[in-house]
Write a structure and sequence with these properties.
Layout: E1 4-6, H1 13-17, E2 24-28, H2 30-33, H3 37-47, E3 52-55, H4 66-74, E4 79-83, H5 91-106, E5 112-117, H6 121-126, H7 129-141, H8 144-158, E6 163-165
Parallel strand pairs: 2-3, 2-4, 4-5, 5-6
Antiparallel strand pairs: 1-3
Keywords: NAD
Organism: Malus domestica
Protein name: TIR domain-containing protein
């Protein structure tokens, strides 16, 4: 995992004893929030000492990184998923969300915190507006089973208690 950056904070002793490498797994759509909101969130987590996984912006997207991301998700206590306007346009983000929710279903202590940045939870859950537009495109190029799994994952995560930022400001 040479292409992975993690916060320089110190992982808590309790997480290490529990077998976790990361205090937080941070999932987001890079084009939307990487240089703004997600950078602020990552820096805040790092500043309070949370050892945080996020993929490097030079990391090439593709199936060959899937095992590494699955391992990072398994080695993280909670996952924070930042939903943004174009989140659902990324097949990779949707696949990552499915991996995160699979872990949540199979591991009782894995918490998933959704952060809705510039989108409403109902848009995510019901796949309307920009999320719905992305799915219209996916339905033309992806298998029906894959699209169905993504839709189910978005509906599931939208029902979780999360944080809503309707302000379009960077911070």
């Amino acid at each position: 995992m040479a292409h992975v950056r993690a916060a320089q904070g110190t992982s808590s002793d309790s997480n290490t004893r529990l077998g976790y490498l990361y205090d937080v797994f941070l999932s987001f759509r890079g084009k939307d929030t990487h240089r703004t909101f997600t950078d602020h969130l990552y820096t805040a987590l790092k500043n309070v000492g949370f050892f945080t996984f996020r993929d490097d912006d030079k990391l090439k997207r593709g199936e060959y990184i899937k095992p590494g991301l699955q391992k990072a998700i398994r080695q993280s206590q909670p996952s924070v998923v930042v939903f943004s306007k174009d989140y659902a346009s990324s097949r990779w983000c949707l696949d990552e969300l499915v991996m995160i929710l699979k872990r949540k279903r199979t591991t009782s202590d894995h918490v998933v915190l959704p952060v809705f940045h510039g989108v409403e939870p109902s848009h995510v859950g019901k796949q309307t507006r920009s999320i719905g537009n992305a799915f219209s495109r996916h339905e033309k190029t992806q298998s029906p089973n894959k699209v169905k799994g993504w839709r189910k994952a978005l509906a599931e995560v939208a029902d979780l208690a999360g944080i809503v930022f309707s302000n379009e400001a960077d911070g």
